[in-house]
Amino acid sequence: MKKFITYQLFIEVTEFLTLTVGKLGKFDFPAGHYVYTGSAKANLEARIARHLSKDKKLKWHIDYLLNAPGVHVTQVTRAIENECACNQNTPGNCLVAKFGASDCRAGCISHLKYQA
Questions:
Q1: Does residue 89 fall inside a structural domain?
Q2: How many domains does the chain fold into?
Q3: Could you identify which of 47, 50, 76, 81 might form a hypothetical disulfide with 86, taking C-beta atoms 3.0 to 4.6 angstroms apart as the criterion?
Q4: Are 100 and 93 in contact (CB under 8 A)?
Q5: What dihedral do alpha carbons 26, 97, 28, 38 form, nearest 10°?
Q6: 4: which strand partners?
Q7: Number of neighbours of residue 69 by Cβ within 10 angstroms
Q8: β-bridge partners, 37
Q9: Quick one: DSSP state of residue 81?
Q10: Please, what is the average pLDDT of the chain?
Q11: Could you tell me the residue range of the domain that residue 95 belongs to?
Q12: How far is CA 37 from CA 1, 67, 76, in A?
């Protein structure tokens, strides 16, 4: 049995937002649909559950977006594919450089994609 290592959060932003995302800075997020790709070497389900919770310390870039008003995860998928390969195969535009990908060595601009 193959083990899931990557997840994607399908996110709806219901209205235009301007957010400060940790040390990345302040960014605009148009209303619409986004896909965030992440991974966990262990405890994938715990990582997903943490992302879905509103009661958490803001640690990762995605935490800032998910805790904003009017932002909802509409679907979660899991994959055995490498995080960066999965992200690179996902359509969409990168609006925030390095979002979730500040340590990426595979050439990903961002692990958050805007799909309108």
A1: yes
A2: 1
A3: 81
A4: no
A5: -100
A6: none
A7: 8
A8: 8
A9: S
A10: 94
A11: 6-114
A12: 22, 17, 10
| Other Cβ atoms within 10 Å of 24 Cβ, number | 16
The residue among 83, 81, 95 whose CA lies nearest residue 11 is 95
Distance, CA of 28 to CA of 20 (rounded, Å) = 9
8 Å CB contact between 110 and 90: no
Q: For residue 49, is it within any domain?
A: yes
Cα 12 to chain centroid distance, Å, stands at: 12
Tokens of 15: 């209205």
Query: What are 5's two structure tokens?
Result: 């290592």
| Single pTM value for the model | 0.94
**In-domain check, residue 92:** yes
Among 100, 33, 23, smallest CA distance to 71 is for: 33
Neighbours of 58 (CB within 10 A): 12
Task: Report the distance separating Cα 62 and Cα 22, nearest Å.
Answer: 10
Residue 1 is assigned to a structural domain of this protein: no
Across 102-113, average pLDDT: 92
Instruction: Look at the block and give the residue holding tokens 């997903």.
Output: 48
pLDDT, greater one: 83 or 102: 83
